[in-house]
Design brief:
alpha/beta, TIM Barrel, four-stranded parallel β-sheet, 7 helices, 4 strands, 8% strand
């Protein structure tokens, strides 16, 4: 039996083969979903858009992306704001750098090689979210942010809405 997202992927492959799109990707695929997709396809997704922030670093999935050459796009990179923006580790780095916690988190993503598109409707925050390219986090900062990982997911788990095929 063929499941809908395998059929959708095959349609994406046809669009790519016909040069109607330059790249195809997936969203919220876990390692098991990616492996099943690759078992049924010759194409590796160009990108996987996943929930990714300091409290949910998804190390196994992130490593698999690197192994397969899949770009990681972080959705909810600020973890819906709130507690993550008040994290003491991130706050200490932000204070030292004279940056906001949001800027530290977004810069962390960029230095990891992730694609980040933070959502904001406030002009001041949009400007702040763009001002990320005139500073860098030190290796120690990157390591410290690793310690913030708690496995906290703010969105729905992909296994709750992605059918196996």
């Amino acid at each position: 039996m063929t499941r809908p997202y395998l059929e959708t992927w095959r349609a994406f492959e046809r669009l790519y083969a016909d040069r109607r799109v330059r790249a195809i990707g997936v969203s919220n695929f876990e390692p098991n979903h990616l492996r099943r997709l690759l078992d049924n396809s010759d194409m590796v997704p160009a990108v996987n858009q996943i929930e990714f922030h300091p409290c949910l670093q998804q190390h196994d999935l992130f490593d698999l992306h690197k192994e397969l050459g899949i770009a990681t796009e972080a959705w909810s990179p600020l973890g819906h704001g709130g507690p993550l923006l008040k994290d003491p580790v991130i706050g200490a780095i932000a204070t030292r750098l004279e940056r906001s916690a949001a800027q530290v988190i977004l810069r962390w993503n960029i230095q990891l090689g992730n694609i980040v598109v933070p959502k904001s409707t406030t002009e001041a925050r949009i400007r702040e979210n763009i001002a990320l390219f005139d500073f860098e986090l030190r290796d120690e900062d990157m390591e410290a942010i690793k310690s913030v990982h708690r496995g906290v997911r703010y969105g729905q788990h992909p296994n709750d809405f992605i059918d196996d095929f």
